[in-house]
Structures are given as C-alpha cells and as structure tokens.
Amino acid sequence: MDTRWKWVLTGLGAAVAAIGPLAMTGGPWYGYVFGGLWFLLGGTVAWRALCMGTRLTAQGITSNGLDRQTTIEWCDVVSVEHARRRNLVLFHTIAPVVRLRSGKETLSELSLLSVQKDVVPERTRKHVAELERALREHRTGCPVCGTVPKAVEISRSLGARVRSRLRSLLRGNGARPIAR
After folding, report:
1. Which end of the chain, N or C, is surrounded by fewer C-beta atoms within 10 Å?
2. What pLDDT is attached to residue 113?
3. Which residue in 15, 13, 12, 39 sits closest to 25, CA to CA?
4. For residue 71, what are the β-bridge partners?
C-alpha cells in the first residue's frame, strides 16, 4: 500500500537537493554551508520518501513513514479500524489504526485529509479492509493466536520417554563416535 504523498515528497526532496549545489557555486563561505545543508536535507527527504508505505508480510505489518519505521507482529494485533483526528482548523485526518494488546499504532503514512467530518474516504476503507483480510488469513493458520489447536504431547511413562530419547540419540549418530 503506497501513499499518494510518496512521489510528491520525493520530487520536492530532489528539487531541494538540486538547489543545494546551485547555492554553493561561486558564493561566499555561508553559501557552501547552506548549500551543503540543503543538498543533505533534500537528499534525505527524497530517499526516505522513496521507502514510504505499508507492507504486509507473513510476520506482520511494516510501516515506513518519513520519520520512522514500525513493525507490528500479527499476533499482537487485536483489531484494525479507522480513526479520525482534528488536524487543522477545517480538516480532519482519517487513518487506519491497529489496536494492539498494549495500546494502538496509527498508520500515519496512509492518512487522508477530509473536510467532511462524518465520512470515511473510500481509500481508507479499502486499506482497513485489506488489513482485516490479512489479519484473518494469519489467524486461520497461526497456532499461537488463531483457532488451530497446538499439538498436545501424549503423556507417557518414564520408561517410554527414556526409550524414545535413547532411540533418537542412537539413530542420529551414524558412523560418528558418541564421545568426542
């Protein structure tokens, strides 16, 4: 799931990075300092913006924002929903929120601005539906948090356990000596 702002921020960062060397050409000492800073900051924003987005893996959700990377494991997720926050005077930010056993994590790189207070944008609904579907798929096959029962070991007598252990030790050695 990519964000719309990914390419806008990449372009702006590249433009700022390109202006840096222009400020350094033939200028005084502070032109070199500020041009170098502009080049460094613009390049950093362009590079980080290229990596922005949310990726669903077998282990969980990897969320790369402009400022940080967050990894959420599927077994820690309780539910996925959308949340609204007041952002500016007229706008509300609506983003998918992952409820965890210990708090919540907002996927802020997938947030959208909305003028209408009571309407969830279609794109946010699609993101939430995709996250919920991936969570259901994980829970169907996970013995830790899903519905698949864990394998239960049959209780055996002490003699049966010792025989089984000796059999496994002797079978695995092959031609190698036991004592090294």
Report:
1. C
2. 59
3. 39
4. 62
Does residue 140 sit in helix, strand or coil?
helix
Q: Find, among 11, 4, 6, 7, the residue nearest to 43 by Cα.
A: 11
Phi and psi dihedrals of 129, rounded to 5?
-65, -40
Q: At residue 40, does pLDDT exceed 90? A: yes
Nearest-angstrom CA–CA distance, 108 and 26: 42
Q: Give 8's strand partners.
A: none
Q: What does residue 154 show for φ and ψ, rounded to 5 degrees?
A: -75, 130
Closest CA to 124 of 138, 137, 146, 107: 107
> What per-residue confidence (pLDDT) applies to 114?
59
Mean pLDDT of 117-128: 75
Looking at the chain, list the stretches that DSSP marks H as alpha helix, in order from N- to C-terminal side.
5-24, 29-50, 122-141, 158-171
Q: Residues near 180 by Cβ (< 8 Å), separated by ≥ 6?
A: none
Question: What span, in angstroms and rounded, lies between the C-alpha atoms of 19 and 156?
Answer: 75
- CA dist., res. 93 & res. 110, Å (int): 10
Can you tell me the distance from the alpha carbon of 83 to that of 92, in angstroms, rounded to the nearest whole number? 10
